[in-house]
Amino acid sequence: MGSVGLLYVGAVLFLNGAMLLGWVESRSAAPLNIFVGLLQVITPTYLIFTANGDANVVLSASGLYLFGFTYLYVAFNLLGGLDGTGLGYFSLFVAVCAVVYAGLNFFRLGDTAFGVIWLYWAFLWLLFFLLLGHSREELTRYTGAVALIQGWVTAAIPAFLLLTGRWGQADTPTALILAVFGVVVFVALYLRLRPGREAPSAPPAGGAAVVGGVSPG
């Protein structure tokens, strides 16, 4: 069930990344954030209630709320035109928790590949903290590109592998490939989109509106 939710996390990360890049009008992204946010609240609640006291199931499900609350928060910001600082500082909380979940996947759950994926998410949420909590608008396009790529690499592709039974928990080569890919691609993206290299393209709804309302996915 969590694998199905992960697929749609990929969709909303992709959409929110496209919004930050100025490809999608900001308010038009709100419905999917609501749909996926609700899914990522209902799914872990069901998993916890049916876990029969299995601590690892409860632990794994608990992390899904971080996504669900984020996407719902995004939707409220987009539709209500709220200031983005609250969402930014919530993103900092998520980033710290994501590092903890990465460690738990490495050393308790034995899923090294998802340990690396949680580090990907910690990096993305840190970018959202900088973008929203500290109004680092020069990071808008870079953050959008990172979110768009992570929608596929950390969510959609792993979801399909899980759904088809092809995901290996202790797959060290996969974890290494993910780690190297993340470092190389995100450093290259920063060098390409770094502040001052070229003038940022303004999103259709205006930079302030997007910065006030977008987040991870």
Automatic annotation (TrEMBL):
It comes from the Bacteria. It is a multi-pass membrane protein. The chain crosses the membrane at residues 6-24, 31-49, 55-74, 86-107, 113-132, 144-163, 175-193. Keywords: Cell membrane, Membrane, Transmembrane, Transmembrane helix, Transport. It is found in: Cell membrane. The keyword Cell membrane applies. Its main location: membrane. Belongs to the AmiS/UreI family. This is Transporter. It comes from Pseudonocardia acidicola.
